[in-house]
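Lab manual, section 2.4: Encoding a predicted structure.

Procedure: take the sequence of the chain (367 residues), apply the prediction step described in section 2.3, and record the output as structure tokens. A sample record is shown.
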Amino acid sequence: MINKTLPLALVALLAGCAQPTDRAQQYLDGEFPQTLNKVTVVDSQTPRDFTEFHRQAHEVVSNSPSMAAIYQPLYEKLNEWVLQSGDPASLAQFGVQAAQLGGGDKQGNVLFTGYFSPVMELRHQANEKFKYPVYKMPNCDEDCPTRAEVYAGALEGQGLELGYAANRIDPFIMEVQGSGFVHFEDDDTLEYFAYGGKNNKAYVSIGKVLIERGEVPRAKMSLKAIKDWVLENDDATVRELLEQNPSFVFFEPRSAAPVTGSAGIPLLPMASVAGDRSLFPMGTPILAEVPLLNPDGTWSGGHQLRLLLVLDTGGAVKQNHLDLYHGMGPRAGTEAGHYKHFGRVWKLGLEGSATEAPWALPPEKLQ
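Recorded output:
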């Protein structure tokens, strides 16, 4: 008698072993034993775009003598490689060494998220519409108020107001980004609000809260989804949600200037990333297969090979996670808000220079 159940069991077994690819995961390199793994040849067949690397590297060399002393020889070799070859397999011919990130799954899949510089509408003085204050850092050290306490008026009367917004979500989004541009609609001036400090309370993701409450499906969570939810709910409901995150960020106004990361270098869209300092000292160049997304935030099915510089950090950016800078304004915000996809990444160094052996880590970082 023919056993007709065996093929079904085999199909079930194969389905159980299938590896997810919905967020641009790839499985090309086997399993990696460490966070950074020495490779002799970078094998990437994806389309390339290195057009912004020269400009971003120039910003580093022009603005930071200390970083230039370390990285300029490597930048020059990479520019030479871009002009003469651009083939990842030929990097070693230019003295460039590579270490591939193992990824959170130890199969090379490194998480890319996105961030941007919002432009927020404020007024210098409050009115019926613009009534939500944005604050500079109070003198509170460790005894700073929580978000709920700030919303309840804990900072009123201290002269800390930098301006007034028309809603709570725009300042909140700028807090998450860490800085941004402000347009004062009462006198048509533009200022840059730099990060000015925080209240040192634990950060809680409101996106995660919305998912756990069943308000937004996990698969559809994005910055746009959060803003859409806010628009559908009244002020008291929105306030209650935002108060689930006790962390509060304060700003420091500056004249309108280029957006800079924590390294103090002007950032160019799609040319710089925030990364973990323990793996990527500021100024580190990486070669990355960046996932390409459709307008609705789904993966397009492709990647693009880019040279990026690590010029920023972030509290949530650890280990195999990079935050790609998308630029300024609403469109950049929409694109960055969709980003939660994977790509392969190689940290680069130059043989015989201060950056050689990019795979080297302190013993406590090897895992």
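Check your result against the sample. The mean pLDDT is 90.
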